[in-house]
Design brief:
By secondary structure, this protein is α/β, with parallel strands linked by helices. The chain has a domain at 56-155 and 199-306: 3-Layer(aba) Sandwich (Rossmann fold), CATH 3.40.50.1110. The chain contains 10 helices and 9 strands. The strands form 3 sheets. The chain has a 5-stranded parallel beta sheet with strand order 6-5-7-8-9. The chain is globular and about 80 Å long.
Length: 307
Amino acid sequence: MKRFRRLLTGLFLLLLVSELVLRFYYGFCDAVLIRQDPEFEYIAQPNQDRFRFRHKINYNSFSMRSAELNKKAFVILGFGDSVINGGNLTDQDSLATTKLSNAFTNIFSTPVQVLNISAGSWGPDNCAAYLNKYGDFGTKLILLIVSSHDAHDNMTFAKIVGTPDFPDHQYRLALVELFDRYLLPRIIKKEKNAELGINKNGIGFNKGFQALLDHSRKKSIPLVIYLHPEISELKTGKYNDQGQEIIAFAKENNIELIQELSSKMEEKNYRDNIHLNEKGQEKMAEILQNALRDTLSRLLTPQDILR
């Protein structure tokens, strides 16, 4: 009987320590929460300050993965999907948008804020719908970061909020979250897209590209597209057919296009087939800084610098 009690006590202590380690060291039960939206499918819930997998993750009152808007800053709208968002495995300070904001602020000696408006699997039409709903926040430049698959990544409004990958509430126990979100899918071999949602089969070229272009022309705001390659494209040194559609659209409409393949981004800067690790985010910020520096020099007015 005593051995059984000791066994139960040991098991209880093991579970307790595991729960505490998962919660306070790895950030379980502190996931980024998502909400549905009738215009652009889904987005992170506003005003979140999370600690997840040893990384700090923040969302402001407009569900941007950025600090609160600085009314004195020169604003750049950064739109995109999980590539620019960074996900749970990228610390807030390691995001390309954060690094770019800091770099331009130092270069021009005036506040520059590159806003990160993004969510996993967003396409340009999600971005355009967000812009239509909330406005452009007085931006002087629109930056759209896309990959080849975004050419046909059209909104479907599938009900995904509330699923383990798009949670709308926290688990009560870290051990339950570990089992339900990470272990159980492996045990039952739940199939996931082998290419992380890369191949999109939406009908027609994503209308968000044109919608963003229309807004930029109407408001006389420059639009810049940054085309990020998948690992497969990095290896071949060429964008696939969908990427070529995006390149053609940019050329036809005289849109400035930054092709990441022309840079020295390396395979070691990726953490999977498409997402960048922290070194990759740093490299993206460097590429954007070099590409946009002259544009910002032209756009910044004495009033911007003095305010």
